[in-house]
Specification:
Number of helices: 17
Radius of gyration: 30 Å
Number of strands: 2
Strand order of the largest sheet: 1-2
Protein backbone atom coordinates (compact mmCIF):
# COMPACT_ATOMS: atom_id res chain seq x y z
CA UNK A 1 0.00 0.00 0.00
CA UNK A 2 2.83 2.35 0.85
CA UNK A 3 4.54 1.70 -2.48
CA UNK A 4 1.20 2.31 -4.31
CA UNK A 5 0.73 5.74 -2.66
CA UNK A 6 4.30 6.71 -3.51
CA UNK A 7 3.76 5.73 -7.14
CA UNK A 8 0.54 7.82 -7.34
CA UNK A 9 2.28 10.83 -5.74
CA UNK A 10 5.17 10.48 -8.18
CA UNK A 11 2.73 10.43 -11.13
CA UNK A 12 0.86 13.57 -9.97
CA UNK A 13 4.10 15.39 -9.24
CA UNK A 14 5.41 14.70 -12.73
CA UNK A 15 2.28 16.33 -14.19
CA UNK A 16 2.83 19.41 -11.99
CA UNK A 17 6.53 19.54 -12.88
CA UNK A 18 7.48 18.61 -9.31
CA UNK A 19 9.90 16.09 -7.91
CA UNK A 20 9.15 13.57 -5.16
CA UNK A 21 11.58 13.52 -2.31
CA UNK A 22 12.89 10.30 -0.82
CA UNK A 23 10.61 10.76 2.22
CA UNK A 24 7.51 10.94 0.01
CA UNK A 25 7.18 14.79 -0.04
CA UNK A 26 7.41 16.97 -3.14
CA UNK A 27 9.59 19.90 -4.18
CA UNK A 28 8.95 22.63 -6.73
CA UNK A 29 10.06 21.99 -10.29
CA UNK A 30 13.16 23.78 -11.43
CA UNK A 31 12.82 27.44 -12.27
CA UNK A 32 14.64 26.81 -15.51
CA UNK A 33 11.91 24.40 -16.61
CA UNK A 34 9.27 26.96 -15.73
CA UNK A 35 11.09 29.60 -17.73
CA UNK A 36 11.45 27.23 -20.64
CA UNK A 37 7.70 26.80 -21.02
CA UNK A 38 7.02 30.49 -20.25
CA UNK A 39 4.81 29.82 -17.23
CA UNK A 40 7.32 31.41 -14.78
CA UNK A 41 7.01 34.81 -16.41
CA UNK A 42 3.23 34.91 -16.19
CA UNK A 43 3.19 33.52 -12.64
CA UNK A 44 5.69 36.10 -11.32
CA UNK A 45 4.72 38.78 -8.81
CA UNK A 46 5.58 41.44 -11.39
CA UNK A 47 2.89 40.27 -13.79
CA UNK A 48 0.34 39.46 -11.10
CA UNK A 49 0.65 42.95 -9.61
CA UNK A 50 0.57 44.71 -13.01
CA UNK A 51 -3.10 45.84 -12.71
CA UNK A 52 -1.99 48.04 -9.83
CA UNK A 53 1.25 49.56 -11.10
CA UNK A 54 0.91 49.43 -14.89
CA UNK A 55 -1.89 52.06 -15.41
CA UNK A 56 -0.19 54.81 -13.34
CA UNK A 57 3.15 53.86 -14.90
CA UNK A 58 1.76 54.30 -18.42
CA UNK A 59 -0.02 57.55 -17.51
CA UNK A 60 3.11 59.03 -15.90
CA UNK A 61 5.25 57.82 -18.80
CA UNK A 62 2.94 59.46 -21.35
CA UNK A 63 2.24 62.77 -19.61
CA UNK A 64 5.70 63.31 -18.03
CA UNK A 65 8.40 61.54 -19.99
CA UNK A 66 6.40 61.67 -23.22
CA UNK A 67 6.01 65.44 -22.79
CA UNK A 68 9.75 65.80 -22.15
CA UNK A 69 10.53 63.79 -25.30
CA UNK A 70 8.11 65.91 -27.34
CA UNK A 71 9.65 69.08 -25.92
CA UNK A 72 13.08 67.81 -26.93
CA UNK A 73 11.80 67.14 -30.46
CA UNK A 74 10.33 70.66 -30.75
CA UNK A 75 13.63 72.16 -29.55
CA UNK A 76 15.33 70.60 -32.58
CA UNK A 77 13.03 72.46 -34.99
CA UNK A 78 12.75 76.16 -35.88
CA UNK A 79 9.09 76.43 -34.91
CA UNK A 80 7.72 79.91 -34.15
CA UNK A 81 4.23 81.32 -34.03
CA UNK A 82 1.14 79.20 -34.49
CA UNK A 83 0.67 76.44 -37.05
CA UNK A 84 1.95 73.01 -37.94
CA UNK A 85 5.40 72.07 -36.64
CA UNK A 86 7.86 71.07 -39.37
CA UNK A 87 9.82 68.03 -38.20
CA UNK A 88 11.57 67.47 -41.56
CA UNK A 89 14.70 69.41 -40.58
CA UNK A 90 16.08 68.74 -37.10
CA UNK A 91 19.26 70.35 -35.78
CA UNK A 92 20.79 71.92 -32.67
CA UNK A 93 20.51 75.51 -33.88
CA UNK A 94 18.41 76.60 -30.87
CA UNK A 95 21.00 75.23 -28.43
CA UNK A 96 23.78 77.01 -30.34
CA UNK A 97 21.72 80.21 -30.20
CA UNK A 98 21.21 79.80 -26.44
CA UNK A 99 24.92 79.55 -25.65
CA UNK A 100 25.60 82.71 -27.67
CA UNK A 101 22.60 84.67 -26.34
CA UNK A 102 23.54 87.25 -23.66
CA UNK A 103 20.01 86.97 -22.18
CA UNK A 104 20.42 83.22 -21.70
CA UNK A 105 23.90 83.55 -20.19
CA UNK A 106 22.69 86.27 -17.80
CA UNK A 107 19.62 84.22 -16.81
CA UNK A 108 21.73 81.06 -16.35
CA UNK A 109 24.16 82.95 -14.10
CA UNK A 110 21.30 84.33 -12.03
CA UNK A 111 19.76 80.85 -11.77
CA UNK A 112 22.99 79.36 -10.45
CA UNK A 113 23.43 82.24 -7.96
CA UNK A 114 19.82 81.85 -6.84
CA UNK A 115 20.13 78.08 -6.35
CA UNK A 116 23.49 78.19 -4.56
CA UNK A 117 22.66 81.23 -2.40
CA UNK A 118 19.16 80.10 -1.50
CA UNK A 119 20.14 76.49 -0.68
CA UNK A 120 23.32 77.44 1.19
CA UNK A 121 21.69 80.05 3.45
CA UNK A 122 18.63 77.85 4.03
CA UNK A 123 20.79 74.91 5.14
CA UNK A 124 22.82 77.04 7.57
CA UNK A 125 19.83 78.83 9.11
CA UNK A 126 17.82 75.61 9.29
CA UNK A 127 20.69 73.84 11.05
CA UNK A 128 21.10 76.62 13.61
CA UNK A 129 17.36 76.69 14.32
CA UNK A 130 17.24 72.89 14.65
CA UNK A 131 20.15 72.85 17.13
CA UNK A 132 18.49 75.67 19.08
CA UNK A 133 15.18 73.80 19.34
CA UNK A 134 16.95 70.53 20.13
CA UNK A 135 18.46 72.15 23.24
CA UNK A 136 15.08 71.85 25.01
CA UNK A 137 14.46 75.59 25.24
CA UNK A 138 11.17 76.95 26.55
CA UNK A 139 8.28 77.42 24.10
CA UNK A 140 10.11 75.31 21.51
CA UNK A 141 6.83 74.02 20.05
CA UNK A 142 5.66 77.60 19.56
CA UNK A 143 8.94 78.59 17.92
CA UNK A 144 8.78 75.53 15.65
CA UNK A 145 5.30 76.50 14.47
CA UNK A 146 6.33 80.11 13.88
CA UNK A 147 9.38 79.10 11.83
CA UNK A 148 7.43 76.54 9.79
CA UNK A 149 4.38 78.74 9.15
CA UNK A 150 5.80 80.69 6.14
CA UNK A 151 6.18 77.44 4.22
CA UNK A 152 2.41 77.02 4.22
CA UNK A 153 2.03 80.24 2.20
CA UNK A 154 1.85 80.20 -1.57
CA UNK A 155 4.38 82.03 -3.73
CA UNK A 156 1.71 84.56 -4.66
CA UNK A 157 1.05 85.48 -1.03
CA UNK A 158 4.77 85.54 -0.25
CA UNK A 159 5.50 87.80 -3.23
CA UNK A 160 2.80 90.31 -2.29
CA UNK A 161 3.90 90.23 1.34
CA UNK A 162 7.52 91.00 0.48
CA UNK A 163 6.47 93.56 -2.15
CA UNK A 164 5.02 95.52 0.73
CA UNK A 165 7.99 94.79 3.01
CA UNK A 166 10.43 96.07 0.34
CA UNK A 167 8.46 99.24 -0.46
CA UNK A 168 10.86 102.15 -0.79
CA UNK A 169 8.81 104.68 1.18
CA UNK A 170 6.64 102.69 3.59
CA UNK A 171 8.21 99.19 3.67
CA UNK A 172 9.13 97.89 7.10
CA UNK A 173 12.61 96.87 5.91
CA UNK A 174 13.55 100.45 5.04
CA UNK A 175 11.81 101.70 8.21
CA UNK A 176 14.03 99.43 10.35
CA UNK A 177 17.18 100.35 8.43
CA UNK A 178 16.24 104.01 8.81
CA UNK A 179 16.49 103.66 12.60
CA UNK A 180 20.24 103.05 12.25
CA UNK A 181 20.72 105.68 9.56
CA UNK A 182 20.67 103.40 6.51
CA UNK A 183 18.60 103.60 3.37
CA UNK A 184 16.06 103.87 2.02
CA UNK A 185 16.89 101.28 -0.64
CA UNK A 186 14.90 100.44 -3.76
CA UNK A 187 15.05 96.67 -3.25
CA UNK A 188 12.82 95.82 -6.22
CA UNK A 189 13.95 98.49 -8.68
CA UNK A 190 17.72 98.26 -8.15
CA UNK A 191 19.25 95.55 -10.43
CA UNK A 192 22.10 95.05 -7.94
CA UNK A 193 19.73 94.38 -5.01
CA UNK A 194 16.77 92.55 -6.52
CA UNK A 195 18.33 89.07 -6.72
CA UNK A 196 19.52 89.23 -3.11
CA UNK A 197 16.06 90.46 -2.07
CA UNK A 198 14.43 87.49 -3.83
CA UNK A 199 16.86 85.05 -2.20
CA UNK A 200 16.18 86.57 1.24
CA UNK A 201 12.40 86.24 0.76
CA UNK A 202 12.73 82.59 -0.33
CA UNK A 203 15.03 81.84 2.63
CA UNK A 204 12.42 83.37 4.95
CA UNK A 205 9.81 81.03 3.49
CA UNK A 206 11.73 77.75 3.39
CA UNK A 207 14.32 77.82 6.19
CA UNK A 208 11.62 76.32 8.45
CA UNK A 209 11.52 73.26 6.19
CA UNK A 210 15.24 72.59 6.58
CA UNK A 211 14.84 73.13 10.33
CA UNK A 212 12.25 70.34 10.50
CA UNK A 213 14.39 67.95 8.45
CA UNK A 214 17.45 68.57 10.64
CA UNK A 215 15.45 68.47 13.86
CA UNK A 216 13.94 65.07 13.02
CA UNK A 217 17.43 63.65 12.44
CA UNK A 218 18.87 65.29 15.57
CA UNK A 219 16.15 63.75 17.73
CA UNK A 220 16.87 60.29 16.26
CA UNK A 221 20.53 60.36 17.33
CA UNK A 222 21.00 58.20 20.47
CA UNK A 223 21.85 60.03 23.68
CA UNK A 224 24.85 57.72 24.03
CA UNK A 225 26.62 59.68 21.29
CA UNK A 226 26.24 62.93 23.23
CA UNK A 227 27.32 61.27 26.48
CA UNK A 228 30.36 59.66 24.84
CA UNK A 229 31.47 63.01 23.46
CA UNK A 230 31.09 64.65 26.86
CA UNK A 231 33.00 61.84 28.56
CA UNK A 232 35.84 62.42 26.09
CA UNK A 233 35.91 66.06 27.19
CA UNK A 234 34.53 67.58 23.98
CA UNK A 235 33.05 71.07 24.24
CA UNK A 236 29.57 71.73 22.88
CA UNK A 237 30.93 73.19 19.64
CA UNK A 238 33.33 70.26 19.09
CA UNK A 239 30.59 67.77 19.95
CA UNK A 240 28.31 69.17 17.25
CA UNK A 241 31.09 69.74 14.70
CA UNK A 242 32.79 66.34 14.98
CA UNK A 243 30.06 63.99 16.22
CA UNK A 244 26.56 65.31 15.51
CA UNK A 245 26.76 67.26 12.24
CA UNK A 246 28.48 64.40 10.31
CA UNK A 247 25.42 62.28 11.10
CA UNK A 248 23.20 64.89 9.42
CA UNK A 249 24.69 64.29 5.97
CA UNK A 250 21.74 62.29 4.61
CA UNK A 251 19.28 64.90 5.92
CA UNK A 252 21.32 67.65 4.29
CA UNK A 253 21.36 65.85 0.93
CA UNK A 254 17.60 65.25 1.01
CA UNK A 255 16.90 68.87 1.98
CA UNK A 256 19.23 70.13 -0.77
CA UNK A 257 17.31 68.28 -3.49
CA UNK A 258 13.94 69.55 -2.25
CA UNK A 259 15.23 73.12 -1.91
CA UNK A 260 16.59 72.95 -5.45
CA UNK A 261 13.08 72.18 -6.69
CA UNK A 262 11.72 75.16 -4.73
CA UNK A 263 14.47 77.38 -6.18
CA UNK A 264 13.46 76.44 -9.73
CA UNK A 265 9.88 77.36 -8.81
CA UNK A 266 10.98 80.94 -8.14
CA UNK A 267 9.24 81.77 -11.42
CA UNK A 268 5.94 81.82 -9.52
CA UNK A 269 7.39 84.29 -7.01
CA UNK A 270 8.79 86.60 -9.70
CA UNK A 271 5.61 86.42 -11.79
CA UNK A 272 3.46 87.33 -8.78
CA UNK A 273 5.92 90.08 -7.81
CA UNK A 274 5.48 92.07 -11.04
CA UNK A 275 2.36 90.46 -12.53
CA UNK A 276 3.98 89.57 -15.87
CA UNK A 277 6.56 87.51 -17.72
CA UNK A 278 9.22 90.22 -17.48
CA UNK A 279 10.79 90.14 -13.98
CA UNK A 280 12.46 93.20 -12.47
CA UNK A 281 15.74 94.10 -14.16
CA UNK A 282 18.54 91.99 -12.73
CA UNK A 283 16.28 89.11 -11.62
CA UNK A 284 15.81 87.24 -14.91
CA UNK A 285 16.29 83.48 -14.42
CA UNK A 286 15.97 80.55 -16.83
CA UNK A 287 12.31 79.72 -16.00
CA UNK A 288 11.20 83.33 -16.62
CA UNK A 289 13.25 83.51 -19.84
CA UNK A 290 11.80 80.19 -21.03
CA UNK A 291 8.19 81.24 -20.45
CA UNK A 292 8.76 84.69 -21.96
CA UNK A 293 10.28 83.23 -25.13
CA UNK A 294 7.52 80.64 -25.52
CA UNK A 295 4.34 82.45 -24.51
CA UNK A 296 5.19 86.11 -25.12
CA UNK A 297 7.45 85.94 -28.18
CA UNK A 298 5.94 82.67 -29.52
CA UNK A 299 9.45 81.27 -30.12
CA UNK A 300 8.43 77.75 -29.20
CA UNK A 301 11.58 76.00 -30.38
CA UNK A 302 13.89 78.36 -28.49
CA UNK A 303 11.71 78.17 -25.38
CA UNK A 304 11.79 74.36 -25.60
CA UNK A 305 15.59 74.39 -25.89
CA UNK A 306 15.82 76.52 -22.73
CA UNK A 307 13.43 74.11 -20.99
CA UNK A 308 15.61 71.13 -21.92
CA UNK A 309 18.74 72.89 -20.66
CA UNK A 310 16.92 73.73 -17.42
CA UNK A 311 15.88 70.09 -17.14
CA UNK A 312 19.50 68.98 -17.57
CA UNK A 313 20.55 71.47 -14.88
CA UNK A 314 18.01 69.98 -12.46
CA UNK A 315 19.02 66.46 -13.46
CA UNK A 316 22.66 67.31 -12.78
CA UNK A 317 21.72 68.14 -9.19
CA UNK A 318 19.28 65.27 -8.62
CA UNK A 319 21.32 62.50 -10.29
CA UNK A 320 24.13 62.46 -7.64
CA UNK A 321 21.45 62.25 -4.94
CA UNK A 322 19.78 59.29 -6.68
CA UNK A 323 23.17 57.59 -7.10
CA UNK A 324 23.93 58.18 -3.41
CA UNK A 325 20.60 56.66 -2.39
CA UNK A 326 21.09 53.71 -4.75
CA UNK A 327 24.63 53.13 -3.47
CA UNK A 328 23.35 52.91 0.10
CA UNK A 329 20.48 50.60 -0.85
CA UNK A 330 17.70 53.15 -0.40
CA UNK A 331 16.43 52.83 -3.99
Amino acid sequence: MRYLLTAIRRLLASKRNEEVRADGGTVEGSEQAARDDGSGLFDSDLVESSPFWLPPFLLMGFFVYGAIAWNLLISLTDHTGFGEIDYSSLDFEMYSRAFSDPQFIFAARNTVVLIVGFIGVCLVIGLLLAILLDRQIRFKNGFRTIYLLPMSLSFVVTAQFWLWMYNVNSGIINQILGLVGLGPYNWIGNPELILGAVIFALVWQFSGYTMVVYLATLQSIPNAHYEAARVDGASTIKMYWRVIIPQLRNAMISATVVLMVFALKAFDFLYALVGGYRPPKGADILPTLMVRMAYQNNEWAYGSAIAILLFLLALGIVAPYLYHQHKHGNL
